[in-house]
């Protein structure tokens, strides 16, 4: 046994990130960790590396018990981690990066030659072809990852935790990574491998543990399981929340047609949304859902493809132009992209219609008040005072203000990106009711959500994205967690 | 628990009161202090002098506070003033242009300089402090090149009215300052683009995603900053009656201090014109009072520098609290 987690519990305000999780990692194995977004994988890694300390539970590394593991003691115990974001300095050489913070010195002078020699030794051991004198910034992502691995090995890591290592890599680089993992394994290194890609789990791992909603579901011998079983374990929760029903209001009128668009992450995506329809976007984080929305909204660049709205091709270069075409986007990150925190509720509601309600550059404040008051009533923003700063509101009320801002622009297509993230249950159901009201009024809604229940509960149709591509489309009668998860995690 | 909330509440109220009126209290304290310390201070002639002295600063502070609202800075305004002085003087004296035409020409020139700053900042996405610092040096150099370092004088008499005239007992520069501040306040409170300044300065990405053309807002703000600096430059030229290469030297520093004293946050998104006026007056009273008390110029430098440092420190502390 290399590592043993015993009854680990970690809670954050409002969420149980890990709930009494116990896990055993056998020395020398490749142990895969799978689960949906928010299943608790990241928290589990951070527990192993000492980046966070659990509320309850103990960690045993090679027989030594730790109640509070610090990053330093984890490193000394031989735990190394390769995060998705590398901890490398582009401007320094490969060797300098490997020995960053613990440079080999001759007196006060850094002994570059010795560091390069040492780096070369590690590279040789694992058959890596990198010149230690090269600047890290000049390397491709795949090679940078190898430098990270070498860095961990130079610190005598006996276990490596790899957090979705294949995600940023090209197809050939992925092959090199697999080879590397096998070499590490034959050198006796224990590996925890986190991935959304099912094929590599079957290819690389000896055992696999499934996490769901902060709980460990099961640990299985990889050779004794299959894709269907894993997916079922990942998503197999009871559907508990109920969603307000709406009458069937889908029209034949197409609000927007998207044909073969590409851009950052997004790769040849096509779909259409009809008026009165809620189209759901499912997929894992990084699957390109948000990026598709941002392209439609003129916030990210479209490199190819056509967007047609009301029979006319549109090409928004900035959000302002998209808004003029009747598109609205309720963004994922409310504080960063939605709210003007230092401004009042009224200012936040009116900001997108100021030009429309101005004459001779002067804002018609009577009209502004009227609009703000109208939406306060219409979508029940709980505040006595519209002059109050939005930062003083609860998450749910902030979200309603942002929605009010967009409804004021009288859009035909409203895009919701994770509309209920971080808001309480009551406000959630109000937002669902609001979405229903919008489609019943004949607007089209595109709803991006990482919550499987939400996207299934609210959508008329679901498109599943994986690594920028559409991998599946389901109509309501075919909705099924396993199918969606299968589309979302396939290659 | 409950009492703690109550305490926080009253603490927040005191902080809010300080934010709203603190600056006027400081002004009052300064006025009282100098009235007691110097018998020449509290006479109407001297107070009108103070008002006239600060008017140029007040005019430029309007455009400058717009820039601060955006979260930027415009170090080039001092040099714009110098260039406006030299070019207007040269146009009137060497080219024989009428004062009106010369004024129009230099105001267009200063707006164009501001626009250039804005264009570079918005499109090349360079930090405003670097762009306007470079611009400051460039324009100052151009001013020297035009006049070869020598003063230019001998303007038509009518030109002097702007800087030296009175309407009743009120100096014309003071009237211009109030008009400009009125326009500034109107822009910020009433116009849609004025509201955009706050939005862009508060959260540029959210502003963009709300449908604001951020690039154009930047053009406008830096253009206005250049333009109002140009207006201040014309008033200075008319007051001194001679175009000199040192006329705008260090002006950006005084204006920055006045704006920050007036509660415009250097982090962007927060500020009001009425408070800027108070900031301008504080600085004016301070300079005037120190002169009356015979404090040496070098000591004055130490004091003014300290005032800026303290003002920015208070602003930063306040900003950190709200986050």
Describe, in plain words, how this protein is organized in 3D.
The complex is a heterodimer of chains A (about 500) and B (about 325). Chain A is α/β, with parallel strands linked by helices. In chain A, about 35% of the residues lie in helices and about 25% in strands. Chain A is built from 17 helices and 24 strands. The radius of gyration of chain A is 26 Å and the shape is globular. The two termini of chain A are about 35 Å apart. The mean pLDDT of chain A is about 90. Chain B has about 325 residues and is mainly α. Chain B has a single domain (about 40-320), classed as ABC transporter involved in vitamin B12 uptake, BtuC (Orthogonal Bundle). Helices cover about 75% and strands about 0% of the residues of chain B. In chain B, strands 1-4 form a two-stranded antiparallel ribbon. In chain B, strands 2-3 form a two-stranded antiparallel ribbon. The interface of A and B includes residues 338, 341 and 355 of A.
Task: Name its key features.
heterodimer; A: 491 residues; alpha/beta; Rossmann fold; 2 domains; six-stranded mixed beta sheet; 24 strands; 34% helix; B: 323 residues; mainly alpha; ABC transporter involved in vitamin B12 uptake, BtuC; two-stranded antiparallel ribbon; 4 strands; globular; disordered N terminus
């Amino acid at each position: 046994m290399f590592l043993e987690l015993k009854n680990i519990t970690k809670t954050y305000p409002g969420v149980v990130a890990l709930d009494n999780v116990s896990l055993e990692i056998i020395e020398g194995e490749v142990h895969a960790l799978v689960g949906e977004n928010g299943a608790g994988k990241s928290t589990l890694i951070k527990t192993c590396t000492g980046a966070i300390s659990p509320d309850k539970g103990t960690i045993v590394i090679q027989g030594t018990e730790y109640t509070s593991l610090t990053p330093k003691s984890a490193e000394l115990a031989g735990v190394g981690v390769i995060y998705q974001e590398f901890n490398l300095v582009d401007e320094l050489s490969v060797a300098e990066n490997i020995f960053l913070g613990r440079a080999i010195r001759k007196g006060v002078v850094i002994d570059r030659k010795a560091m390069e020699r040492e780096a070369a030794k590690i590279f040789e051991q694992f058959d890596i072809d990198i010149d230690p004198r090269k600047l890290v910034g000049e390397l491709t992502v795949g090679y940078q990852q190898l430098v990270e691995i070498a860095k961990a090995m130079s610190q005598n890591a006996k276990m490596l935790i790899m957090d979705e290592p294949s995600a940023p890599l090209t197809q050939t680089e992925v092959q090199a990574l697999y080879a590397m993992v096998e070499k590490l394994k034959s050198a006796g290194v224990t590996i925890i491998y986190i991935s959304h890609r099912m094929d590599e789990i079957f290819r690389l791992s000896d055992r696999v543990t499934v996490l769901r909603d902060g709980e460990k579901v099961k640990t299985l011998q990889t050779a004794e399981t299959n894709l269907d079983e894993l997916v079922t374990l990942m998503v197999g929760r009871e559907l508990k929340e109920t969603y307000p029903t709406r009458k069937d209001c889908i029209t034949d009128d197409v609000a927007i047609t998207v044909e073969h668009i590409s851009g950052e992450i997004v790769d040849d995506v096509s779909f259409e949304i009809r008026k009165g329809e809620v189209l759901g976007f499912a997929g894992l984080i990084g699957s390109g859902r948000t990026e598709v929305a941002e392209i439609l909204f003129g916030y990210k660049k479209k490199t190819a493809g056509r967007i047609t709205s009301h029979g006319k091709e549109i090409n928004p270069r900035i959000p302002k132009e998209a808004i003029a075409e009747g598109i609205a986007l309720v963004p994922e990150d409310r504080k960063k992209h939605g709210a003007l925190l230092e401004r009042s509720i009224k200012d936040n509601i009116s900001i997108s219609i100021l030009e429309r309600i101005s004459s001779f550059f002067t804002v018609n404040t009577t009209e502004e008040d009227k609009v703000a008051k109208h939406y306060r009533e219409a979508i029940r923003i709980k505040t006595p005072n519209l002059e109050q700063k939005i930062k003083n509101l609860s998450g749910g009320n902030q979200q309603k203000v942002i929605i009010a801002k967009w409804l004021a622009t009288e859009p035909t297509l409203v895009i919701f990106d994770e509309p209920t993230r971080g808001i309480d249950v009551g406000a959630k159901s109000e937002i669902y009711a609001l979405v229903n009201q919008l489609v019943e009024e004949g607007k089209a809604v595109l709803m991006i959500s990482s919550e499987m229940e939400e996207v299934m509960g609210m959508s008329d149709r679901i498109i599943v994205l994986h690594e920028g591509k559409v991998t599946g489309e389901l109509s309501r009668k075919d909705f099924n967690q396993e199918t969606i998860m299968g589309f979302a995690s396939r290659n | 628990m409950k009492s703690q909330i109550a305490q926080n509440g009253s603490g927040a109220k005191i902080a809010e009161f300080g934010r709203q009126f603190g600056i006027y209290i400081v002004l009052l304290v300064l006025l009282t202090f100098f009235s007691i310390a110097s018998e020449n201070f509290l006479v109407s002639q001297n107070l009108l002098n103070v008002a006239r002295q600060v008017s140029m600063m007040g005019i430029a502070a309007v455009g400058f506070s717009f820039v601060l609202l955006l979260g930027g800075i415009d170090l080039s305004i001092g040099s714009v003033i110098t260039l406006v002085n030299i070019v207007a003087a040269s146009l009137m004296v060497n080219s024989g242009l009428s004062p009106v035409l010369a004024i129009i020409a230099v105001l267009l020139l200063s707006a164009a300089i501001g626009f250039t700053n804005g264009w570079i900042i918005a499109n090349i996405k360079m930090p405003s402090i670097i762009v306007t610092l470079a611009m400051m040096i460039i324009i100052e150099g151009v001013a020297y090149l035009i006049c070869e370092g020598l003063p230019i004088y001998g303007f038509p008499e009518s030109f002097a009215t702007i800087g030296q005239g009175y309407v009743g007992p009120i100096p014309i520069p003071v009237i211009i300052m109030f008009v400009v501040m009125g326009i500034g306040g109107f822009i910020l409170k009433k116009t849609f683009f004025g509201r955009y300044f706050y939005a862009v300065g508060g959260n540029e990405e959210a502003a963009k995603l709300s449908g604001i053309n951020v690039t154009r807002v930047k053009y406008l703000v830096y253009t206005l900053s250049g333009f109002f600096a140009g207006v201040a430059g014309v008033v200075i030229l008319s007051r001194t009656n001679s175009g000199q290469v040192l006329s705008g030297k260090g002006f950006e520093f005084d204006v920055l201090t006045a704006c920050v004293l007036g509660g415009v946050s250097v982090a962007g998104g927060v500020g009001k014109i009425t408070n800027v006026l108070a900031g301008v007056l504080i600085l004016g009273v301070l300079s005037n009072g120190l002169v009356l008390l015979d404090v040496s110029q070098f000591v004055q430098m130490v004091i003014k520098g300290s005032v800026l440092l303290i003002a920015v420190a208070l602003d930063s502390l306040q900003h950190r609290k709200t986050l």
